[in-house]
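This protein record is not my work; I was only asked to verify it. Take the sequence as given and treat only the tokens as open to question. I have pasted the whole thing underneath without changing anything:
***
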Amino acid sequence: MSGTSYLAVSPWFTTADQPEHLAAINPWEGVSDVYRDLVMRGGIPDTGFARQLRDRDRARS
């Protein structure tokens, strides 16, 4: 698995499940500090993207 941005976060979550078939991940340019990179980007609150992710996850439940 590899990717940037959101596609870099997906391998991290997948790895947490420790699937037997997963040999390697190659995330780059992904979120490393959710607060700094997503919620307070550049010191400015950005609630739109975080809200979109939250609402999408709630819709799946």
